Amino acid sequence: MIANVIVDFEPFLVLILGLDLRYGYPLHGFFHTFIGGSLVALALAEVIAKFYKHLGKEISVKKLKITALSGVWLHIVLDSFLYTDIKPFFPLSWNPFYGVFSAFEVYGFCIVAFLLGMSLYLLINLKFHPKH
């Protein structure tokens, strides 16, 4: 879940520090590209793996990397439908996703996916991990 929102730390900093007004930095910059997002995802996976190791728990770094990459890439694709300043295939300035779906459709998809995901999560946990 962290991987799905970590790239939005960039627009937060752009707005808070006024980087868009002072330096012309786009709201959705390098970390909203597949290259930049991948770097963030892989770094996040390493940090989480070290955190788990510090707690004495084992976790598959490979699974963490796959999960982090898929979360970041999904975020970039969904944002690419909505924002003109996103260049997912940087260094190319082309965004083939922009305008394919409306904001209503993208946010509707997010809501439905969240509800389905939570339902599945609860079903699995109640079925396979019932409390006594």
UniProtKB/TrEMBL annotation:
UniProt-recorded name of the protein: Membrane-bound metal-dependent hydrolase
Highest taxon of source: Archaea
Membrane-traversing stretches: 30-52, 64-84, 104-124
Species the sequence originates in: Thermococcus barophilus (strain DSM 11836 / MP)
Keywords associated with the record: Membrane, Transmembrane, Transmembrane helix
